[in-house]
């Protein structure tokens, strides 16, 4: 059985305010129910970066996080396309490397209540990341783990 990392508010706060597509372009660019951001959760960021650079042409920049680890922002040209999150330490024991997807929703709290009535399990309750939005992590009735977020409104 595969296990997946469930982000906590501390993991997310560490610089994401600078990397989401809507933030990087200086305006709101999200639509309810669409995929908004993807992160590769890996134990070997350098190997992952080499793979995606060679195969997809991505370039990477480093972003120090509050806990001292480095978050890697993947770009295609000037556009952010994904993040690479380093998994290390005992909290990641038994967690398989995987892509974590975040979907944008119009009201994360209301949507989570609806999801629970349909058999979803909330893994990380909603929390706010200033300048980014309100985020939660859930497991759908089939077991798929994902993040849902209501992005913060960005004003130019």
From TrEMBL:
Pfam families: Glyoxalase. InterPro entries: Anthracycline_SecMetBiosynth, Glyas_Bleomycin-R_OHBP_Dase, Glyas_Fos-R_dOase_dom, VOC_core. Signal peptide: none annotated. It comes from the Bacteria. Residues 34-151 form the VOC domain. This is VOC domain-containing protein. It comes from Roseibium denhamense.
């Amino acid at each position: 059985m595969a296990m997946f990392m469930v982000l906590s508010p501390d993991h997310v706060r560490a610089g994401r305010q600078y990397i989401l597509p809507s933030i990087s372009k200086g305006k709101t660019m999200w639509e309810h129910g669409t995929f908004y951001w993807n992160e590769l959760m890996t134990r070997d960021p350098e190997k992952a970066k080499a793979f995606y650079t060679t195969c997809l042409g991505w370039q990477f920049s480093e972003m120090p996080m509050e806990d001292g680890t480095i978050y890697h922002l993947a770009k295609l040209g000037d556009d952010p396309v994904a993040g690479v999150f380093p998994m290390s330490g005992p909290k990641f024991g038994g967690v398989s490397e995987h892509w974590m997807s975040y979907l944008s929703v119009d009201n994360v709290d209301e949507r989570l209540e609806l999801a629970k009535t349909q058999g979803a399990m909330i893994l990380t309750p909603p929390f706010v990341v200033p300048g980014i939005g309100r985020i939660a992590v859930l497991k759908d009735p089939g077991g798929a783990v994902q993040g849902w977020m209501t992005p913060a409104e960005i004003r130019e």
